[in-house]
Design brief:
two-stranded antiparallel sheet; three-stranded parallel sheet; Rossmann fold; 9 helices; alpha/beta
């Protein structure tokens, strides 16, 4: 549920927020003891992607590639391929400032993938995304996992989780309530129903809303 600690957890995993205790290790690299090496093998798509507004889509991806140490020609080539895969090729020369929410999400995903990370972190990847863009993102994530990479993301979209995840954890108030394969956590129900059963309903005080829905005289 909202406020459970998903974004906080992802921020600690990706070296943005120092944990109070414990260690975070990715491919044998301690995120906080060796942050440069650890961050070199990961890609991150935050919930609110902050991109350079005055750059075009292709310039943003090329810039991300150059920041990751790719030669200019390689960064340009990979950017073009990713824009095509993300259905952004027709808008490659438009300024990011003119991009919709879905287009921004896809551009941010391209920036996170351009250096071919071993592990990809996404925070609410389909939040505010239209169905067509969501399908593009879903297919790209499935392809990435099929290539041997690891994708870890937080989401309230249970349909997405059921379609692409092989392992699920339900978090509430900073604690893991259930973890295992998707089928294990579902327990023969839909994932959404399993989630509701685990977390419990949060609506309170409906009986006090006697005025809601009534016509006024």
């Amino acid at each position: 549920p909202n406020g459970a600690g998903k974004t906080t957890t992802l921020s600690m995993m990706t070296g943005l927020l120092r944990p109070d205790a414990g260690r975070i290790v990715i491919k044998g690299l301690d995120v906080w003891a060796d942050p440069v090496a650890a961050k070199a093998v990961i890609g991150v798509v935050p919930a609110e992607a902050r991109l350079f507004e005055r750059l075009s889509g292709e310039e943003v991806l090329e810039y991300a590639g150059r920041l990751r140490g790719l030669p200019a020609a390689e960064a340009r080539s990979r950017a073009a391929q990713l824009l095509e895969m993300l259905d952004l090729a027709a808008d490659a020369k438009r300024l990011v400032a003119d991009y919709s929410t879905g287009m921004r999400k896809k551009a941010a995903l391209g920036c996170a993938l351009i250096h071919n990370p071993s592990v990809l972190f996404l925070d609410e990847p389909l939040e505010g995304v239209d169905p067509i863009s969501a399908d593009v993102i879903r297919r790209l994530l499935t392809r990435l996992v099929g290539s041997g990479a690891t994708v870890l993301f937080s989401s309230h979209v249970m349909e997405l989780v059921e379609q692409v995840c092989d392992h699920v954890s339900v978090i509430d108030k900073g604690r893991i309530l259930a973890t295992g394969t998707t089928d294990e956590v579902r327990g023969g129900k839909t994932l959404q129903q399993a989630f509701i059963d685990l977390v419990g309903t949060r609506a309170k005080g409906e009986e006090g809303l006697t005025w809601l829905g009534s016509s006024s005289n």
